[in-house]
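Interim report, section 4.2 (structural modelling).
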Amino acid sequence: MSSIVSLPDQSTARIPKRNYLTNENGILSWLLTGDHKRIAILYLISITFFFFIGGALAGLIRLELLTPQSDLMAADTYNKVFSMHGIVMIFLFLVPSVPATLGNFLIPIMVGAKDLAFPKINLLSWYLYMIGGCLTLWAMITGGVDTGWTFTTPLSTHYVNTNVVTTGLAIFIAGFASIFTGLNFIVTIHRMRAPGMTWFKLPLFVWSNYAASILMVLGTPVLAIALVLVVLERTIGIGVFDPTKGGDPLLFQHLFWFYSHPAVYIMILPGMGVISEVISTFSRKRVFGYSAVAFSSVAIAVFGFFVWEHHMFIMGVSNYSTLVFSLLTMLVAVPSAIKIFNWAFTLYKGSITFETPMLYAFGFMGLFTIGGLTGVFLGSSGTDIHLTETYFIVAHFHFVMVGGMLMAFLAGIHFWWPKLTGRMYPEKISQLAAVVTFIGFNFTFFPQFLLGMLGMPRRYAAYPPEFQVLNVFSTAGATILGVGYLLPILYLIWSLKYGKVAGNNPWQATGLEWQIQSPPLTENFIEIPVVTQDAYDYEWLERQKEREVTQVG
Amino acid sequence: MDSPTVALHESSHGEHPSYQRHHFVSMAQQKESASFGMWLFLLTEIMFFGGMFTAYLVYRNWYYPAFVAGSHTLSIVLGTTNTGVLITSSFTMAMGVWCAETRRRGGLILSLILTLVLGLAFLGIKSVEYHEKWVQHHVPGLRFDAMTFVHPKAEPGQAAEPPLPLDMAQHTEVYFSLYFAMTGMHALHMIIGMGLLVYMLIQAIRGAYDNGNIAFIENFGLYWHFVDIVWIFLFPLLYLISRHQ
Amino acid sequence: MSAHEEHSSEEQHIVSPKIYVLIATALLLCTALTVAASYLELGPWNAVVALAIAVFKASLVVLFFMHIKYSSKLMKLTVGAGLFTFLTLVGMSMSDYISRAWGSF
Ligand code: HEM
Ligand SMILES: [Cu+2]
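Predicted structure of the assembly:
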C-alpha cells in the first residue's frame, strides 16, 4: 500500500516546546481556559465519556434482543435503556461530536484567526454541556426516563411517571451549549477571516460547519420551547398539548421535529465536511465541483427546515400536507446526492492512498449512501406507512448516524490527531480498526433492514421467535462493532506518549492548519496569514516546499 | 517557527484601545462581531417565542369563542398602560445607548435608572394582572374553573359577557395556558434584563463606560428592544381579540 | 455623525435623539390606534389590522431603535433569515392544521 505520510526524521524530531498544551499548567488553566483548542479537547474527552455510556446502553439493548422473550430485563427497564441510549447518543454525543471538538479546534485556524469570536461563550458552552450531561446521568440513575428520545406527548406528559422533567431540563440546557457553539462559528466565519480568505477559498469543512451552525441557531430554540411546555404541563398542568383540555398532542411533534429533522443535519453536515477534507487529501486532488459541494451544504440547511413532517405521516396529520412534505423530502436528498457524486468524481483519476482516515471516509460514503437512499423510501408517504415504527427506521438512521457520522468523526479524529497532539497514531492497527468497524457495522444494522421489512416493530423488548436469527446476527455484529470502537480509544491514548512525532504536515495537506506547528501555539499564528491560494491547491503546496528548500539551502 | 504560507501582515492599525481583545485584529472587527453575535442570539429568541406563537395561531383558530372570552377578562386599561410603559422604556434605553455613544455619563445613568423604573412598573402592573387571574380562578392547572364562562356575571357598569357552551368554556384553559406561557416567558426576559440593567448602572456610576467600551450597553439595548417587540405582538394577540363584541 | 472622531472612523452611525423621540411618539400613537381599531366591527379584518399595526411597530423598533436601517447588509440579511425561519415554522405547521378538515382523498 502506498502512502503519502511524510514524517520528520524521528531521531531528531521533537514536539515543539511551546504549544497550546504546554502553554499553561494546572487543572484551572484548563477549566478556565478561553483557548478554542483546549475547549475542543475538553469537549473531546466529555463526548467520549458519554459515547461510552451510550455504547454500554446499546450493548444492553442488543443483549436483551438476543432472545425473543424479555428475559435480561423487564420490559419497562428496556424502555428506559433505549430511551437513555437515544438521548445520550443524540444530544450528548452526535450533536456536539464534530462541531464542538474538531470544529472548535480547526475553524479558527482554517479561517486564519487567533480564536473564535467569543472565547468565554465557547467555554460557557462546554459548561452548559456538562451540566446538561450530568443532569441526564442524574435522571438516569434516579429512575430513568422511558419516553424514547422523542419525548412524545401525551406519553411524556400524562402516561409515564419517570424523570421526564429532569431529562427535559437537561436537554434544554445542553441545547444552549449547541446554540452557543453555532453562534460562535457563524460570527467567526463571517467576521474573523484572514486577509485574502474569501468565502470560496474556505475549506469545505468550514462551509459545512457553517451550514450546521445555522441549523443549531435557528432550530434548537424550538426544541427548547417544546420541552419547556412539556415541563410546564407536567409540573403545573397547563394545557397546550393536553387533549383533555383541548390541546393538540401533535403540536408537540411539530415543534419537536421542526428541530429534530434539522438536527439530523446538524449531526451529518460537519461529518460531510470532514469527508471532503479527507477525500481531497488522500486523492491529491481538489474537491471536484468545490462550489457545488459548498452550496449543497447551505441547501441542505435551508431545505432541512421544510421536511419535518415526514416523521409524522402516520400520526394523524392532514393527507394534503403529507403530500407536500413527502415531495419536499425528495428535494432534500438532492444536495446529499450532489455531495456523494462530487466525492466520487474527486476520487476519479486521483492518486488514492489508503491511510486510516481514508478508509473511514470510504466507509462513510458507502454507508451514508445506503442510509440516505432508504431515507427516500421512508419519505415516500406510501412506503412509509409500511416501514415506519419498524426496524427499517432503526436501520435507516443508524446507517446515516453511525455508518455516516460516527465514521466521519473517526475519520476526522485520525486525520487531525497529529495536529491535535503532535503525534501519529499507529497506522496498521488503526487500519484494522477501521475495517473491523465497517464489518461489524454491516453485520449489526443490515439485518435490521430485513427485520423492518418483515415487520418487526421498534422499541419492544420481546419479539416473535421467527425474527430471532436476524437478531442474533445483529447482536453478534454489535460485538464486533464494540471491538472496533474500543481499539481506537486504546491506541490513541497509547499514542499520546509513544506515537511517532508527526511534524507540521504529515499528510502533505493544503489547509492552513497544516502549515503551522503541531500542536499549534496558543495564538495559532505568529502573524495573521495573508491567503492567496485556493483551498486544496496541491501545486501551491509543492511550490511552497520548493521555496522552503531553496531558502534553507 | 514561521510557516511558509504565512506572509507578513502589517499589524499597523495604530494604537489599540485597552479593551480590544487580543484575538481581534481591530476594534471595528470586535464591535461588529459583538453586535452580529447579539443578533444571532436574538434569532434564537425569535424561534423560541415562535413555537408559542404557532401554538397560539392553531388554538385561536380552533377555539375562537374561548379566546374571545378569555381575552375579555383581561384589563384593557392595564394592558394598554403596560404597552405604553414598555415602549417608553425602550425609548429611554435607546437614549441610554445614545448617551453612551456620545460619552455623556450623567445622561447614561439617568437613562438606565428610568429604564429600570419603567421595567419595574411593567412587572408591577403585570403582577397585579396575574393576581387578578389567580383570584378569578383563571390560572390553568393550578387554580382553574371554567364555570365563570358558562355563567358569566355582569361586571358593575357593564353588560355580562355572552355565556359559552361548557366544552368551549373549558377550552379557555388553553387560552390562559398560552397567556401565562407567553407573558410569563416575556416577564422572565424582563427580569433577566433588569438584573443586567442594575449591573450596567453600577458600572456606569463607576465610570466604566467613559472610555468608549460600550459594546455591552449597545447589545443590551438590542435585547431590551427585542423584549419590547415581543410585547408589541403579545398585546394585540392576547388583549385585543374582538373587543367590540 | 459623532463629534468623537474615534467612532466615526469605525463607520459607527449614531442615530440622533430627535429620531428616537419621533419613533417613540409614533409607537405610542400606533398603540392607541390598535386599541381603537379593536373596538370597531371589522369582521375578519380586525385581526389583520391588529397584526398589520403590530408589524409596523415592530419594524420601526427594528429599523431605528435597533439601528438596522443604518447597519450592514449582513445584519439586514440576518434579520431577514430570522423572519423567514419564523414564517416557515408558523406557515408550514399551519399547512397541516388548515387542511386536516378537508377530509381524505
Ligand atoms: C438523505 C436524506 C434523508 C432522508 C430523505 C431521510 C428521511 C427520513 C424519514 C422520512 C424518516 C421518518 C421515518 C418514519 O418515522 O416513518 C427518517 C427518520 C430518521 N432519520 Fe432520516 N433521512 C435522511 C437522512 C438522515 C440523516 C443524515 C440522519 C442523521 C444523521 C437521519 C436520521 C434519522 C433519524 C434519527 C430518524 C428516526 C427518528 C425517530 O423516529 O426516532 N436521516 N428519515
Ligand atoms: Cu427527518
